[in-house]
Amino acid sequence: MKLPKPPGAYRRFAERFPKAARHYEQFSEATISEGPLDERSARLVKLAVAVGARQEGAVHSAVRKGLSTGLKAEEMLQVAALAMPTIGLPSGVAAMTWIETALSEAGT
User: 3-state SS of the chain: helix, strand, coil percent to 5?
Assistant: First the structure.
């Protein structure tokens, strides 16, 4: 799968610390490829974790990567809705806004 171009902050990190970036990317790929979940499911889980952790940048990243694996906008927005009873309505709405922003930036 071809991932989207990472944001500028990550590219600057990778330029400054290429070995660390390479190891991070290998670790991230291994967590997806070595388990029983298919990539689509893994991308939904990663989005859910980002939503639950209230990590806006990670939500944006998960949306970009999810789109590259064929996830639909409605599927990703449902992740925020599913999280609401657990993380609270305000946090869930914030996550939905982050997802919508990332979708808009991606042109969907």
Answer: 80, 0, 20
For residue 84, being part of any structural domain is answered with yes
CATH code of the domain in which 73 resides: 1.20.1290.10
For the CA atoms of 38, 44, 47, 52, what is the dihedral angle to 10 degrees?
A: -110
Q: Answer yes or no: is 72 within a domain.
A: yes
Residue 59 near residue 102, CB atoms below 8 Å: yes
Q: Are 91 and 52 in contact (CB under 8 A)?
A: no
For 60-105, the pLDDT digits (tens) are 999 999 999 999 999 999 999 999 999 999 999 999 999 999 999 9
